[in-house]
Amino acid sequence: MVSSLGVSRGLVVVVCAPSGAGKTSICKKLVSECADVVFSISATTRSPRGVEKHGQEYFFMSKEEFSRASSAGEFLEQSFVFGNFYGTPKASVERYIECGMDVVLDVDCDGARQISSAYPSDSVTIYIFPPSIEELANRLVSRNENSADEIERRLKDAELCVANLSLFDYIVVNDNLQKAYEDVKSIIRAEKLKTSRRELSSY
Ligand code: 5GP
C-alpha cells in the first residue's frame, strides 16, 4: 500500500523564446505569484542595458571573470549568444532544487539542450512562441531597444530555433499573456504530479 507521496526535488523550468515573445513577462509573473518558484540569475559578459543592475537581471562579468568561472566548472550550461557569453550558475540552481524550490531559467536553445541532458528527469523545457514572425518583428520594432541589424539577427535566430522545436517538451503560443502564463503554470503543475517525480514508499 502506498504510504507517502512526497515530492522531493524541485523542478528546473527552462523557458526559451525569441526576444519579443513575452518570455520575460511570463517568468516575472511566475516568480511574483508562485511562492515556491525562483528565477535563476545568469552571468553574462554583455554590458548592462538601461536600468539593469548587477545581481538583479544578470551577474555582469568581464570576459576574464567569465572564463575563470567557466574553467572552475561553475556553470551548469553556457552559450555564446549575439556576441556575448551567458551562463547559468550551478551552485544556486542545485541549492534551490535540493530544497524543493522550482527554478526558472531563461536561456537560449543551446542552453535548453544542455540543461535537458544535465537534468533528464528534473527539468522541463518550454518554448514560448510568438503568434507569428511578423508579429514578433512588430513587437521588436515597437520596443525600440534594438538596432535594425539586431532585430534582423534576432528574427533569424527565432527562425533557427523554430527548426529545433522538437527539442522542447512543450510549446506555448503567446497571443494572450495571461493565457500563456496559465499554460506555463499548468505545465509546471502537471510535471510535478508525474509519477516518476514522486517518492513512492510502501509497507
Ligand atoms: P539578453 O542579453 O537580451 O538579455 O539575452 C539574450 C539571449 O541570451 C536570450 O535569448 C536569453 O534567453 C539568453 N540567455 C540569457 N541568460 C542565459 C544563460 O544563462 N544561458 C544561455 N544559454 N542563454 C542565456
From TrEMBL:
Primary residence: cytoplasm
SUPFAM superfamilies hit by this protein: P-loop containing nucleoside triphosphate hydrolases
Q: Which domain of life does the UniProt lineage start with?
A: Bacteria
PROSITE patterns, A to Z = GUANYLATE_KINASE_1, GUANYLATE_KINASE_2
Does the UniProt entry include the keyword Kinase?
A: yes
Subcellular location(s): the record lists: Cytoplasm
**By its UniProt entry, which InterPro entries does this protein fall under?**
GK/Ca_channel_bsu, Guanylate_kin-like_dom, Guanylate_kinase, Guanylate_kinase_CS, P-loop_NTPase
Question: Which GO MF terms does the UniProt record name?
Answer: kinase activity
- Give me the reactions it catalyses: GMP + ATP = GDP + ADP
Keyword Cytoplasm applies = yes
Binding-site residues, ATP? 17-24
Keyword list (alphabetical) reads: ATP-binding, Cytoplasm, Kinase, Nucleotide-binding, Transferase
Domain Guanylate kinase-like span(s) in chain numbering: 10-189
What Enzyme Commission number(s) apply to this enzyme? 2.7.4.8
Could you say which protein family the record assigns here? Belongs to the guanylate kinase family.
Please give the NCBIfam families that the UniProt record associates with this protein: guanyl_kin (TIGR03263)
* Matches recorded under HAMAP family: Guanylate_kinase (MF_00328)
State its role: Essential for recycling GMP and indirectly, cGMP.
Name this protein carries in UniProt: Guanylate kinase
Species source reads Candidatus Hydrogenosomobacter endosymbioticus
Name the gene that codes for it: gmk
